[in-house]
Design a protein that fits this description.
55% helix; 2 strands; mainly alpha; 156 residues; elongated; two-stranded antiparallel sheet
């Protein structure tokens, strides 16, 4: 019999499994947080990307736990799975975002994060995007509308 995986790592694993695996984990867990499945990670702007240092550390430990064969004993609630299904759906790029299909998770998270960070100064979001991601500028309005319609509150 193997040992149980620590509860917070088990919930992280279940969440990632429900929303498409570890690729782009920072973006997926960020979106899950604003969909109502908050795993307690804080996010910041690091090197032109929204990242969580604690999540990065936990992902390394999660890989080790998995390789040791530790068991997941926790479960997510049906409500959590429903909210995570919304995250999976919103990760599919809409037709109007065809120029950034491969970057779509980053587009969503970047626009949401900057809009929340600069809620009192909306022009600042566009300034940052213009410097780091000029291709995202025409997508700000439609992306905010998509996020608001889907599940996230995004300041104008």
């Amino acid at each position: 019999m193997s040992l149980p995986m620590p509860a917070h790592l088990a919930v992280l694993k279940l969440t990632l499994d429900a929303i498409g695996g570890n690729a782009d984990a920072d973006q997926k867990i960020y979106l899950a947080k604003y969909a109502g499945v908050d795993l307690g990670y804080g996010f910041g702007w690091f090197g032109k990307h929204v990242r969580s240092m604690a999540l990065g550390a936990d992902l390394s430990v999660l890989d080790e736990e998995h390789s040791l064969g530790h068991e997941v004993l926790q479960t997510l609630t049906p409500a959590q799975y429903q909210r995570l299904a919304i995250v999976t759906k919103v990760q599919t790029p809409p037709p109007w975002a065809s120029t950034v299909t491969a970057e779509w998770p980053n587009v969503l998270v970047t626009i949401h994060f900057l809009s929340r960070t600069y809620a009192a100064k909306p022009d600042r979001t566009e300034d940052v995007l213009e410097r780091h991601y000029p291709a995202y500028l025409p997508l700000v309005g439609p992306t905010r509308e998509l996020l608001e319609r889907t599940f996230l509150t995004v300041p104008a």
